[in-house]
Amino acid sequence: MTEPERVQFRPRxxxxxxxxxxxxxxxxxxxxxxxxxxxxxxxxFAFADQVAMVVIGVLLAIGSLLxxxxxxxxxxxxxxxxxxxxxxxxxxxxxxxxxxxxxAPWARLEMPGDEYESVMAIQAVDRRRAVDAVRVxxxxxxxxxQRAESARAEERADAAERGxxxxxxxxxx
Length: 173
Prior knowledge:
Layout: E1 7-9, H1 13-35, H2 47-65, E2 71-74, E3 78-82, E4 87-91, E5 97-99, E6 106-111, E7 115-123, H3 128-162, H4 167-172
Antiparallel strand pairs: 1-2, 2-3, 3-4, 5-6, 6-7
Helix pairs in contact: 1-2
């Protein structure tokens, strides 16, 4: 038996932007912190103030790096969506559609009841990579739905052979 196909997608441009911003923040706050005592402004800056400026720069850089966190992983059974703060895992049966609406910044999973889950790992600014990623996810979704339908049909056929009623039959009635 072969290992099921597993895919992973991450945003490319947003990752680069967040890393560059993080580096710029650390450099800028370190420079400002080191230059605080230079000059006669009438304000007294102590060593603790300089350290605090560097710490603030590091904290802001960490916040900037959160934008490099989005990722989507998918296989034949599930899809896991990690956005900036949250991570959620869905069975393909729970997903109605993988979509990328016109003008949207990122893809999304359409769920029952007009709900959706944003997939920030697949972003419009990544252009061709985003299109390819959506196509792969749609293919995995389609295959999962076909397998589920085949399993239900097989279950109905087995039940018909036995002359019994299955849970699937009662749901469809």
